[in-house]
Write a structure and sequence with these properties.
Elements (H helix, E strand, L loop, with lengths): L9 H12 L3 E2 H8 L7 H13 L3 E4 L6 E4 L3 H17 L3 H10 L5 H15 L1
Antiparallel strand pairs: 1-3, 2-3
Length: 125
């Protein structure tokens, strides 16, 4: 059975993107990578890293003089968990309800619909 991914807050996603991009990283490297992307003070970033460690989403290597942080879950695992949580909260857990809304609202282009048809055809084979 797969381990359940803890809930990640929106601000924590920014930290995770940096770690998925390249890790392990020191807290200072995470701070540097976020400069220009988020208007956060270094202390805020360290607090977010600490929160992610407590949630067991980020691990820390304490064997070196400077601690380095790394993700404990793959990006796609977290994306799937977030998508399931979103579907459950907003659409009662059914993907069909969400797709119907997008189709009815014309949010999907003809190209998008063709790609979805191809994926569905491939999946049903």
């Amino acid at each position: 059975m797969a381990k359940e991914v803890p809930n990640i807050a929106e601000s924590e996603w920014e930290i995770m993107k940096i770690l998925w991009e390249n890790s392990p990283r020191t807290a200072n490297e995470v701070v540097s990578a976020l400069q220009g992307k988020a208007d956060w003070k270094p202390k805020t970033i360290r607090t977010l890293l600490d929160r992610l460690m407590k949630k067991k989403v980020v691990g820390v290597n304490k064997e070196q003089r400077v601690y380095t942080f790394y993700p404990l879950y793959a990006e796609d695992e977290c994306q799937r968990a977030e998508a399931k949580s979103f579907l459950k909260r907003i659409y009662g857990g059914t993907l069909k309800s969400m797709l119907v809304q997008f189709i009815e609202d014309d949010a999907l282009s003809e190209k998008d619909m063709n790609e979805i048809r191809q994926m569905l055809d491939k999946k049903s084979k």
